[in-house]
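Hey team,

Filing this mostly as a record. A colleague (T.K.) asked me to run one chain through the structure pipeline before their review meeting, and I want the input and output archived in the tracker in case anyone asks later how it was produced. No errors, nothing strange. Just documentation.

Input sequence:
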Amino acid sequence: LGEVKEAHPVFALFTGSAQEGLYGARFQRYFLLEPQPARADGTVQVLAAFDDGAPALVEARRGEGRVALWTSTLD
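Output structure:
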């Protein structure tokens, strides 16, 4: 991963030495995603991106909840 919004709660487990697992992960393939631009209310944001800038983890607000999309496999 190239860029990660570490302050987001989804990454709370990846502090200290656990960051090695986050930044040391390697990915063979991922789905190329082009999220729609965020609306004024901030409903869509890229939380992590691959080295080439492609979104890895995207979060969207829907109603009172949130939906997250990971663009690669978790293995």
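Quick notes for T.K.: Residues 19-23 form the longest helix (5 residues). The radius of gyration is 13 Å.
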